[in-house]
Structure prediction request, 1169 residues.
Amino acid sequence: MRASSADRIFDTVVYSIVILVTVVTLYPFLNVLALSLNDSTDSVRGGISIFPRQLTWQNYEIIFSYPSLLTGFKISVLRTLVGTLLGLASASMLAYTLSRPDFQGRRFVSIFLAMTMYVSGGMVPIYILIRDLGMMNSFAVYVLPGLVSAFNVFVIRSFIDGLPYALQESAKLDGANDFTIFWQVILPLSKPALATIALFLAVGQWNSWFDTYLYNGSNETLTTLQFELMKVLQSTDSGNGDYRSTNMTQVSPESVKMAITIVVTVPILVVYPFLQRYFVKGMTLGAVKT
Amino acid sequence: MPKMRKWTAIVLAATLVGALLAGCAQKEQKEQQQEKAASNAPIVMTFYSEDPSPNWAGMEDEVGRVITEKTGIKLKAEFAVGDAQQKSALIASSGTFPDLISAKGSINKMVDAGGMRDLTDLIEEHGPNIKKLFGKEMKRLRYSLDDPSIYVIPTYSAVDNVPFKAEGGFELQHRVVKELGYPTIRTVKDFENAIKAYLEKHPTDENGNPNIGLSLIADDWRMYISVTNPAFYTTGGPDDGETNIDIDTQKVTYHYRRPAEKEYFRWLNHMNAEGLLDKESFVQKSDQYKAKIASGRVLGLIDQQWGYDDGEKAIKKEGKFEHGYGHYPVTLTEETKDTSYWPTGFMAGYGVGISVDNPDPVAAIKFLDFLCSEEGQVLVNWGVEGKHYVVEDGKRIIPEDVINRKVNDAAKFQQESGIGTYINMGGRYGHGVKDSTGNYYTTEFPEQIIAEYNEVEKETLAAYGVSTWIELFPKPEEFPVRPWGAAWNIPVPSDSEVSILQEKLKNITWKRIPQIILAAPSEFDKLWDEYMAELEKAGVERMEQGFEKFVKDRVKLWND
Amino acid sequence: MNAVTAKQRNNLKQGRSSQFWRGVMRNKYLYLMSLPFVIWTFVFHYLPLWGWTMAFQRYRPNRPFWEQEWVGLDHFMTLFSDDMFYLVLRNTLAMSFMGLIAGFTIPILFAIMVNEIRGMVFKRFAQTVSYLPHFVSWVVVAGIISKMLSTDNGAVNELLMWLGIIKEPVQFMAKGEWFWGIVTAADVWKETGWNAIIYLAAISGIGPELYEAAKVDGASRLRQIWHITLPGIRTTIIILLIMSIGHLISIGFEKQFLLGNNLVSDYSQVLDLYALNYGISMGRFSFGTAINMFNSIVSLFLLFTANGIFKRLTKESIM
Prediction:
């Protein structure tokens, strides 16, 4: 293999840019980490970049002193698992049916789904619907209403479209029905797409708190991690200027807010490598197909 | 292939088990509730509030337990996270209401949706402490002229409140006034001269970074506090939101249209032209502002204590007490008085109400009544006797170790004790009111405040001949009573033209005022006239007339 | 593949109703796999659309549906006669357009570049780090940018002065004309890594044998990218592009709100903020719903247009 000079220049440029991007995107996170480990009064002075000036664990201690955090963590993990699995199942099945050119409902369902991405009845009708379906104060409200996501369907479908149709045909000749083809042929070959959508679903579930607030607000057994942390994050920054009737001295310190970001992100970082290997591959890995 | 099957099976199984567990937990919870209802356990009522309360401990804290013991009610509470207005709107439109509701500004949504009970009779029969607390102010609890029901027990405004702590005015660093020999700081000119003189002698700090004369903060609604409200505080106008109302005729003026306020903004423009105003004032965010204050370089501020407190605490922690700030009652000219403490009288409006879905309104009103009683007030403010305070020679004292915990371990202390958590759940007496034992109801009173001052503050205060900052300010008694209370508290129906106009005018003002302040002085008059013309074109007079009607209605409601 | 589908399409075209039902039975699994979800979508996404009627009423929460007051197109008239509406619309479209261009080209380029990195450890590390800003909230990112661009020891000004490009610090955050650029750049910083993930996944689906063959033919890396990588992810790019065009008008308001201030408000206020301020925050459900409807209709228009154009030009489409 001759490495031509064009290739060497190419490599240099690519590596330098990627290194630059890495440094530039690492900075905000390190900054947040440093602030979270810094004494909160000292943080106000500013000027902290990637190293804490007055190291302290106090911010984390404050966060972990809230007992409902553990319940929140358990429920968050549960909803992430359940929500991701259900979401993957629904998106992949729909994506497969829509990828089949001989499926009569293809055009209709595609349009039907696509429109849902841009159209919404608003919060009031949805709230009333959830209540009427008896999903207030329930775990189901975390995973059922959002079960079908048009975006996920279309992304997976674009991957399936890239697979040679011959594979499906030969499976059919072997006597497989559509579901078997889906399960045994399509799914294993769609790992990168599934991993990506799994990531999006998982992060979405992990980070949600607004649904907890709206539907399970006073239910201590169904609280989620993000919601518990948002409660701690009581910030007068997001107020609507109602400063005359609010106790303005009760703002949580900057550093605690930073610690919250870290607490929420670390689990994602821990789980991420397991998904990453499906779509960040070396150039010399064996063939994906057949 | 088999590997994938195995993993799939495991994950699916785990999920199923998890889902089952979640379902079981719920069932268990329901069974527990039913058990509780059967026995003589306290009644559980749901409580919804538009305020956050992160240290809520399920009413298991020390104060909470005593309240449950005395009233037989345990609250299952839900507090605001982020913007509560959306959730309140949803609750109103859904038609299912929590048992007790503390919906500050959204009360009209709840009333419109028919969710609130009229409390008049309940108070009459079961609320002796409520009647005693609100006494002469009962008229103000009525909702409107068309609907004189009482829907809320006011819990935000305190009865007979005497302000002891100065939070506003103009602020100057102690070292500035000290070096200049503690000159009188009475007018904006005094303020300006002090800053100018000090800057000439000390243009930079010890690190070579430039000192800043005056820094303002205009980040979103802080614009009101630091930039626009001072315009009326310094020119003899009380805080009536964005309007100024004539005390005799109730004629409403959008306050920026007062000629005196034009001169106030002219002064700010002049400060900018002289290089005394921080150029970043209209661009900086809150944390940059506080960082500047924490660096000790900002000589003067126009803000409320809670707006810069974090910054001041940081610099005090370094021991640089002379970089802390004093509060001064600055006005435009000697003829006017600083109106920070122009009283509003008792402000009803925001508070706790009982919803139509409440299973036991009598128990609920008794609960609220207990919180208004003397015993309840002391409990909620001071805590449990023996644990959070002691009584020595008839005087209530908070022991050192408790104070220590309050300051240094605030979150945990509040979770355990519950002090401060229940204050906005019932009506309350204000600062300065004494109970039957001769002690104050609240824990904020002059002796306590003075005890918290540091040496430099005490030195400055002594030089000005007072012992607390608020003594420098004109007292509430010096001002006539406003029959409408305060304009910012008068509810305006959501689809009324007045609200829409107010929002439009705000947009114009927030764009124009910074522009005007930063312009060259020669341009000031021209730009100001353009601003006034733009307001007129947008319909400011219609807003003024429309709002006047609401003011007059309020005067009738509260005084007849 | 084309030949096969053409044959199947021919079969369908000769369909009569019996053909239709036979087709359904043949595809019964497909229907089983999709029908439940279609019903689901109907319940949770289409049923709530009754709320759109609020836009034509003077909605009062306490009264049931048939007691509401109908005002026809009044709210829309109010909306379209407000000067502010056109201002925020302009700002919204400008920023989304810039965001669309930047948000497409840059993540794709980045994904390709990461893919070209040979060392696995660095590759995975760089990719992981690149999406970290996605998890840092806009409040924090806006604070960092505000500090960097400030005239009070801000990093950007210090650098530019050191390089001699400017003599005095420039107050970037106060210049309205720069605002759109600042917002776009901030978004690129924050979201590129995350947005690149889909493209990386798409790239990993390209068969390595294509690259082997190209290398044997002596193609340089650049040529390989142009002829293999890009065409390989073409479908994904187009699908995402169509979907993003639909979202052009509803880009939220958080980052514009946090990065903006009163000096640049003419450039920073967007439609969703206008909807919040004049709609929900004021309790004006109907007006808010009217804006929501407007957004949806424009989005659908953009969607169908984009889909149609791409279908014609590239044979790829969503619908």
Remarks:
- The CA atoms of residues 129 and 163 of chain B lie 24 Å apart.
- Chain B has a mean pLDDT of 89.
- The longest helix of chain B spans residues 2-38.
